[in-house]
Amino acid sequence: MPDDVSVIDTSSILQIRRIIARQEQQGVYDKLTVLVQGNSLFFPKEVVVELERWSNPDPSSTDLPLEWVKANSHKAAKHGVPFDALKLVLEQVQEVHDPDKLGVEEADPYVLALAIHLQQQGKQVMVLTEERKDRPDKISMTTACGVLRLPCLPVHMFLRINGIWQATN
Q1: Which of 34, 93, 123, 125 has a 20 to 30 Å separation from 112 between CA atoms?
Q2: Pairwise CA distance, residues 70 & 66, whole Å
Q3: What are the beta bridge partners of residue 8?
Q4: pLDDT per position as a tens digit, 118-127
Q5: What is the pTM of this model?
Q6: φ and ψ at 59, to 5 degrees?
Q7: CB 107 within 8 A of CB 49
C-alpha cells in the first residue's frame, strides 16, 4: 500500500552487517534503496550522525551501513522532525535517552518522533529496531514503540516480509 512506510533505526541498519554474509550485504542495501526511492523507507538525519560516530575508522574497508545512509539521506531524511512530535515522544518516553551517553545526541527519540509525524500524516508506520532490552534507567525502542502505540519489527523480519532476504538454516 502506498501509505505503508517504515522508519529505520541505527540498530537495524547495523544489524544487516551482523546477520547477512558480506557478499550479500550490498544487494540488501540496494533493495533498501529502492524502498527509499519509493518513499516507503525513512530515517531522521540523526541516524546519519549516529552512524558517523560509530563508523569503521579503517579506510581500507568499506563501511556499507554508513555509505548507504549517506547515499540515501537526501531522500530518506527529507522529512524534518517537527518539534511537537519530538516533544510528545520525550514527554511520554523520556527514558528512551541513554543516561550513559551524556552530551551525545541520540537518534532514538528522533526515529520515534519521525514515526509519529508520519503517522499524523495518515501513514501506516512501522518502526524497525533491534533494541529489545530494558534497563531500570533506559527503556528499549521496542518498549517506547509500545507506549507510543507504534508497531515495530526487527530488520530480519522486515527483510523477509518484503522479499529482500531470508535467513537460511
Answers
A1: 34
A2: 6
A3: 128
A4: 999 999 999 9
A5: 0.92
A6: -70, -15
A7: yes
